[in-house]
Amino acid sequence: MRPQPDWLITDDVDYVEVDLGNLKTGKEAEVFVIERTYGDRSCLLAHKRYRPRAVSHRGELAGLGFQRANSFMNDHVYRDGRKFAKSRDQRAVDRMTNYGKELLTGRWTGHELEMMQRAWEAGVNVPYPVGPRGDGMLMQFVGDDQGAAPRLVQARLGRVELEQAFGQLVDNLRLLVGAGFVHADLSAYNLLWWREQVWLIDFPQAVDVTTSLHAFEFLHRDVVNVCTWFGRRGIEVNTDELYTELVGMACAF
Ligand SMILES: Nc1ncnc2c1ncn2[C@@H]1O[C@H](COP(=O)(O)OP(=O)(O)OP(=O)(O)O)[C@@H](O)[C@H]1O
Ligand SMILES: [Mg+2]
């Protein structure tokens, strides 16, 4: 087991948490920054809150503190291979009734945490997943008290750093596929750059290579996305070679 990070103030002490406010409003979720303190120690955490999927009007969302409404974008594609145990539940999901949407919301939220825990255990550079929290999850905040780490698209890396970032990304992809899953929403928008390191974030769409019918399609899209981005910035990339290598690793499952 990969040890818990030593900077984390854990539940065995009586810490205090302060919500420092909203960091980002994304497509599916909002991210809030939390400062946890105990005595003279403190650590920063990110609370990712998923937008409820089963609300009927915007006012309800606003009441819950969310800023934008949400759709069930492509949910059916990511859902495959993850059927509900009870046939009544599966039928509700297939028909997209309100009850079915609630079921999906619950599973979606637990899914990202589980995927990030697996990635963390596999040694992938992801924010440490602390655990579930209300309508979302708590994880390590990548950044410091001056601000959050920039996304790769905003980080303005020079040539040497771009090469470094690409090399690290390839290593992380090997670890991820080696652990049996695919990110499925990988792009320079879901990569952070902090203290010379690439961090992978945003895992709710991640799929298992053994159960998802679309795993290879997603893997291909992930590889093409990031290779195109780095390629356009003058980094030597070999998309086909990388994809073939990763497929080989995935087929070992
Ligand atoms: N652990 C973290 N530390 C620092 N910043 C984070 C962290 N997690 C998320 N963020 C910031 O919040 C943004 C939204 O998070 P994320 O990508 O997980 O959610 P999303 O709903 O898919 O958003 P988007 O639609 O922007 O992709 C990220 O682009 C990043 O800037
Ligand atoms: Mg994102």
Residue share in β-strands: 15-25%
Ranges where pLDDT stays below 50 over 5 or more residues in a row are 67-80
Strands of the largest sheet, in order across it? Answer: 1-2-3-5-4
Per DSSP E runs of 2 or more residues, the count of β-strands stands at 11
Share of helical residues:
25-40%
Topology:
Elements (H helix, E strand, L loop, with lengths): L15 E10 L3 E10 L2 E10 L7 H6 L11 H5 L7 H8 L3 H24 L7 E5 L2 E5 L2 E2 L2 E2 L10 H20 L2 E2 L8 E4 L2 E4 L6 E2 L6 H18 L6 H13 L2
Antiparallel strand pairs: 1-2, 2-3, 3-5, 4-5, 6-7, 8-11, 9-10
Helix pairs in contact: 3-4, 5-7, 6-7
The chain binds adenosine-5'-triphosphate (ATP) and magnesium ion.
Structure description:
- By secondary structure, the protein is an alpha+beta fold.
- The strands form 4 sheets. The protein has a 5-stranded antiparallel beta sheet with strand order 1-2-3-5-4.
- The structure holds adenosine-5'-triphosphate (ATP) and magnesium ion (MG).
- The site of adenosine-5'-triphosphate has 22 residues, from strand 1, strand 2, strand 3 and strand 5.
